[in-house]
Design brief:
Elements (H helix, E strand, L loop, with lengths): L1 H5 L2 E6 L15 H10 L3 E6 L10 H4 L3 H4 L3 H9 L2 E8 L2 E9 H11 L2 H11 L6 E3 L5 E3 L2 E3 L3 H13 L8 H8 L3 E2 L3 H10 L2 H6 L11
Parallel strand pairs: 1-2, 7-8
Antiparallel strand pairs: 3-4, 5-6, 6-7
Helix pairs in contact: 9-10
């Protein structure tokens, strides 16, 4: 993005073929609309270039950990304000370890310990019953590989972070649910996510109307 502000004319190559038509397609979703509003003021051309034909791809695009090695201080400060601590160590010029710790995760773990129903299920698991609950190496209880979130307030906080934070762009309920279910679990998650997104004022204000305008009666 920085290049768009420096140079007057830009020719951008992408291995995502459908991006060629992003400026001409008739129907766009909310996320595409925000990107178009940002890009409309730049003089740029999008050209498709197959990924397999790009033999000398930028190393940074292939190594996601390199991002953290040059993370701007502003982003690190934002993460700190969000209660997220980034811990890393570098040995002999090699990236060795990256760990993200969130106070939200700690509070979820604490809530698990105080939830009598979940603790009873864990006792059944320890007794040899198949409950689907297991204990992670960090002490948290998980359903499969997903962190169990029992508290209603914590569920709301998880959804707010996934939908309203500085590093998310108000995803729709389907996208948000798919993202959250990779890490978290609770009964009725899909329904709660849909309800949360439907009540977002920002989403309501920028929601596109795809139906034709009704005629006069």
């Amino acid at each position: 993005m920085e290049a768009l502000f420096i140079w007057r004319e830009n020719q951008i190559y992408t291995d995502h073929k459908s991006l060629k038509y992003v400026f001409t397609q008739k129907k766009i979703n909310m996320r595409q609309r925000r990107w178009l509003q940002l890009l409309k003021d730049f003089d740029m051309e999008l050209e498709y270039h197959p990924g397999k034909a790009n033999k000398v791809a930028d190393a940074l695009s292939r190594r996601p950990e390199a991002f953290f090695m040059n993370t701007p201080k502003e982003i690190l400060e934002d993460l700190r304000k969000m209660g997220i601590e980034v811990i890393y160590s570098i040995t002999e010029g090699m990236w060795q370890n990256l760990q993200v710790q969130s106070s939200l995760i700690d509070r979820i773990k604490e809530a698990q310990q105080n939830d009598s129903n979940l603790q009873e299920i864990w006792k059944q698991t320890e007794a040899g019953l198949q409950t689907g609950i297991r204990k992670h190496s960090n002490g948290s209880l998980r359903f499969g590989d997903r962190l169990c979130v029992l508290s209603g307030n914590l569920r709301t906080e998880v959804m707010a972070e996934a939908h309203n934070s500085q590093y998310s762009i108000h995803p729709g309920s389907t996208k948000m649910y798919k993202d959250l279910k990779q890490t978290f679990w609770w009964h009725g998650m899909k329904r709660e996510v849909a309800r949360f997104v439907s009540r977002c004022l920002v989403c309501q204000q920028v929601k596109l109307e795809h139906q034709r305008t009704a005629g006069l009666l």
